[in-house]
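Consider the following input, taken from an annotated entry for Gamma-D-glutamyl-L-lysine endopeptidase (Roseovarius mucosus).
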Amino acid sequence: MTTPCLIALPLVDLLRGPDGPRDRQLLMGEGVTVQSIADEWAEVTAIRDGYSGFVPDSALTEGTVTHRVSARATHLYPAPDFKTRERFSLSHGARLQVLSQQGRFAETPQGYVPHAHLSSLDVLDTDPVTVAETLLGTPYLWGGNSSFGIDCSGLVQAGCLACGIACPGDSGPQERSLGAPLSESAPLQRGDLLFWRGHVAWVSDPATLLHANAHHMAVAYEPIADAIARITAQRGGPVTSRKRLKGLS
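Applying the prediction step yields:
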């Protein structure tokens, strides 16, 4: 029997095993189902994408969420006053329960967040690339899922989830499940995806990619032709597929 819970910490690594390597990350307020708890470790499955792993059982709580952080990042304060010392920072995509509005701040069970940095969960973005551009310059982090560090598949997932598009956590499953294939001759457009073995990138415009990559060690723009030549030269292989998400035109 599984138990639904929420992530209680601003950011927690989803580990392959207790004290094991990081596979992905989970943000505050994200939902998980708990399979088991033993020796202070919980085996969980992320509701957003079915990714399973281990987190400290202290990272779990119960509750309700109503809003998500739609800004790149925000701060949570002990009072509705930006001059007070913040309690912690929250990444884009973190989820909170808004109890009331206090001037420019939203009151949550954890404290106060600028209301301008939040969106209701029932209000979706319409352009996943615009969402991904919010994270431009974010440091590259293998397995990262936050504005403090993110990888290529994390950047794609962030854009998709903000637009209500179901999206796996890794580039391989993303290539298999996202969008419809494009022929080599089809012109690329904003919102298309290019896949390599172990890598994925958004098409920002017909000549430019936006991707989290270890070459720039950041979320960065790169000319498509340059990226293809560079990845080929680094033995990353050719583009394995070009995909177009449904409903984007």
